[in-house]
Sequence to fold (1008 residues):
Amino acid sequence: MTATIESMQPTFAIMCPAIVSILILLFGKWPNIRESWTLIAAIAQFLIVISMAPVILAGNIIECTFFTMLPGVDFGFSVDAFGLIFAITSSFLWILVSLYSIGYMRSLNEHAQTRFYFFFALAIFGAVGIAMSGNLFTMFIFYEILTVSTYPLVAHEQTPVALAAGRKYLAYLLTSGTFFLAAIVLTYYFSGTTDFVNGGIPNLASEASRAALMVLFVIFLLGFMKAAWMPFHSWLPTAMAAPTPVSALLHAVAVVKAGVFGIIRVVCYIYGVDLMSALGLGLALVCLATFTLIVANLFALAQDNLKRRLAYSTINQLSLIIFGVALLSYEGIEGAMMHIPFHGFMKITLFMCAGAIMVASGKKNISEMAGIGKKMPVTMIAFTIGALGMCALPPTAGYITHHLFVHGCEEAGGSMTIFPYILLIVAILDVMYFFPIIYTAFFKKSKDGGDRRIQEAPIFMLIPIAITATVSIIFYFYPDLFYISDLVHTAISGLMGGHP
Amino acid sequence: MLCAVEHFPVLIIVISLLSAFTIFIAGWLNKKSCCFISFATILVQLVMSIFILHHVLTAGTINYWLGGWSPPWGIEYVVDALNAYVLVILLFLALVCVMYSKRNIEHELPHKIVSFYVLYQLLVTGLCGVTVTGDIFNMYVFVEIFSLSAYALIASRGKIALKASYTYLILGSIGACFFLLGIGFLYSVTGTLNMHDLSLLLPPLYGNRMVQAAFGFFIIGLGIKMALFPLHTWLPDAHSFAPAEISAMLSGIIIEVSTYAFIRVCFSVYTVNFLKLLPIFDILCWVAASGIIIGSVLAIAQDNLKRMLAYSSVSQMGYIMLAVGLSVSSHNELWGGLTPALMHILNHALMKGCLFLVAGAFIYKADLWNISDFRGLGRKMPYTCAAFSLAAISMIGVPPSVGFVSKLYIILASLDSGKFVFVAIMLISTLLNLVYFWRVIETMYMKQEEGAHDHSSSRRDEVPASMLIPILILASLCIIVGIIWLAEIPMPIMDSVNSLFGLSGGMT
Fold:
């Protein structure tokens, strides 16, 4: 019943940020006009993307092809349920982050704002392109565009620290890009195609030997350093030198999500679940993810800088997504796919709160935040909601996905059944580093009696924070907001048939 | 009765040569006219070359007998898809450079305007001559014409440039000698100088030591001319001390035309069958691969931007030669044969042309040579720096730029010939390119100017439009042509070249 529909919708969605980036440059001298272009494009893009959902839910795939790059490889977009999830997440969050950055950049009177908005729009262009590409080559093109366009954002402050962070960022991610290219070319060499196929490329297993496939998978993983799996994670905490909206972009909207998105694409749509388990790669990937899960949380415990602690939490949560897909079971993959938007909303709340605290009080370290909860109640309540989500506690979206991961482990059976206990340990560690922040903010009294001038951040920043925090809770009661859970079910039933 | 287009090969040369003398005389009367005459001539040549390309693709090879003497007695000009393609590239870049040169030369060489344009026109004549001729001795003559004009043009800035030019003169002459020796050997064995005739007479003699030695001479001779890795020593000095447009021509066209001559000798004088007798091309691959890596490593060590670009050219010539080396063993219809090599000839001309012109713009505006002095340039010269960034990103090979397409095709070709090690070389080279180009981008945009605390303090100070437009044209082509390659629009040219030389999968 899967039908392919030719439509220009994906192109329109992708062109929104591309066109607006040019408009931003042209209207650089008039900040109000410049920012309204960003908002208009963000909303337009979201509407186009969400309008594709009913069509996709009916079991169709929306395609538009431009030209053939290599025999068997077209340059074009092909939107399926999984891609649409990522596209919806990043385009919706773009609206909020744009609002937020208007507040943030203007309050701090940041320099080079035109450059900032220009590259921000380009990064969204890359992210949505990744979400909608129908094969690995197209994906690679947008993947590299995303890497290069985020560099000026990471190094935005232009201080030596920021420059070093930018350099490290590029060194890791472009190196990883070459691995990705190598993996793509090898896949193409073996199978003659790089299209994403439900259940994997059929002739991959017959054309390449077991050892070759294993090596190829390792190259693929190296190609997705954007997913910040350990020990290739250190670019991410370093990149915290960037302004907070950029951190939000990196962590929730685009960059790291592109990494895990890519891993899920490779596991489910290039290798396929059956081939993965036949090669024993599932268990290997689970072990890798578990290692990162625990070690990242241990690192997080040691951080005093709030943004760095959140960065390690992101590394942890990304590995959770990898963990879920590596279980190769129905509910594991379901959890992994759902966690992409869920984690996006929760983590962006946390980052925007961290930024709001910085704008309002200038404080970056947790130890300085005593009593801040009373001065900035809205911000800190939103922060608490996000933190609850990270710790997998109800009533937040995080609970749902963790629940699915545990079920996924049981469903996978065998040696996988010990992993729920590890997830429990990880959740306890989460609690250990998030609750002290909340405690410090609400219950500790600051020594100097607190600065009276501290008050809530500007309204432009509070609105997005409130929205994302609310959405994180709504997801708990109604996971079908923005069609997310339906899309996930459509995607998985394409992959593995019905629910077992 | 020949149709008009079939006269164009000879007209391109004659017009260019006459124009050189016209410039000389007109320059006496009015210095300002030189540039316009040169521009007009090259524009006409470019239009002709496009007609030639179209004619070659639709109606087949053009054979023009000079003076009506039939070959092998007379000189013959033969234009097939390969020459026509190279001719278009070379004239296009020459046109862009001449447009750029107007203000730059008035600024840099105010007393030598006339001689500059005379020599420039002779350079273009020589390059066109090498490209269109079908006679190997005639090719040698044209190689000498363009080399001699290049020596003089490099020396035109005086002082240290004289030394650079002298080194190039010595090495270039040695190269030309080897080339001539090779021709002499072939002539003594076969008694002919016509390429087509040679390719018919040579096959029974492939075992002959003279013929094999001649091939060795060709490799060494042209290897020097095209700065193939161990023979590249003249290049960094020559590139860095020449005026900007000459650097761009040297790097973007002159060494490429020498590569064209090499390809022509390999495939039109000798044939694929000869190349399959000995493992020459396998060795060539390894030489090229070491050139790719060492050129890049040396580029990292440079602080002078033009020297860095020059070493990068050594590495990029490695790309082209690696692709030539793989051409015999990779048989795919799309990326087999000479396709990646020809592709990179165009791509490198665009990227390096743009980069050298930008380097010239920095020198023109603020006399900045060293990368460490580029702080804050991103604000002062936004368009120039943006063009540099685009070209640099292409060199690194970020899609969908031209550099990415070349890299992809060379990787696919090496997989096709089963030489996996070159895949690794290409990928490592990407990272090395990243190191030395990103350093420049970072300094231009991200590092603060010393003493400037206020961001708005540095005013915009761009180069004049006649210099900016060529830069921007080349930079935007770096992306546009990349997409055109990805869409496989120019592939008929490539297919026509490959089938001509009996390369590539479908044809064997």
